[in-house]
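hey so u asked for the seq, here:
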Amino acid sequence: MGTDQMTASNETLQRASLLLLGVGLLALSAVNVLVSDADLWLRLVESGLPIGLALFFLVFAVHLYERGESPEAMVVITAWAFAGGLVTGALAVWLLAVITLQGEVISDPSYVVASSATVGATFGGAAGYYHAQLRETASQLQRQNMRLDEFASILSHDLRNPLSVAASGMDLAKQTGREEDFERVKQAHERMDRMIAELLKLSRQGADLSDLEPVSLREVAEGASETVAADLQADIAFRFPDDTKLRADPERLAAVFENLFRNAGEHAGSEPTVTVGAFPDGAGFYVADDGPGIPPDEREDVFDQGYTTDAQGTGIGLAIVRRVADAHGWDVSVTESEAGGARFEFYT
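ran it, structure tokens below
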């Protein structure tokens, strides 16, 4: 079994951990009904509470699993639920021991322990869910603060360069009246306009996604190529079946293709050859071009906000690509394409 398969199996097991605990609680309550010495009707009445709570716990676990709760959150909730059941179960055993030492006879001790453990696990799971939500909220706030820092960097540094070019170009144009000097001012303003537009995109791509849908990889890629058609005429080849689908947000996936197509145009010319393909095992997809490629020691840096080798570039496009991938939970990397250009690989 490969590393990716092992990782996927571990994540599936982590997400299913709460389900397994719910099944265990239900089985514990059912076993208590079977082994109890009390009359059947009394056993059914006694077990009503633990079985009801176990069913509620199991339904709650199924809901979180189908909603796509993260493996980390499911493990946290399971740990809290297990700890709650363990503590209350141990407390019940201790109380039964104390009562027994005092000469009292407990007719059905297993019922007391099972009920206590189920109640503790249910409330522990609720506390764990609250704790997981607090952690997620704190993580979202941290990511928002990081984005604010990035925006401040762009506003204070990256926009300063085209502003300086525009200001100096305007002074020179006033003195000379030459058309090329006014053209410099126009280009500087156009670059600022692109930077602001891409900055807005960047701010909208960072939020995590919860509701994904199966989308056609070919339809989204073709739509993205039509969007950027005014800027470049790319020859796009598809190397996957037409019915290939991917669970994604279609608008953000389109943003990935648009930025990668524009990146190919910036470095491979206005008519680049771009290949969009899918991995045979369904593990993801890639976008490759026939440009000059990216040196190995710069392949991690290309996703940094502000990184660009083009004097007219904004350094934001590939940062958007990384942000969309992160929001989907994908891994993205850069390698060399068959044509010697750049190949961006997405592992979903």
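The domain at 211-347 is CATH 3.30.565.10 (Heat Shock Protein 90). The mean pLDDT is 78.
lmk if thats what u needed
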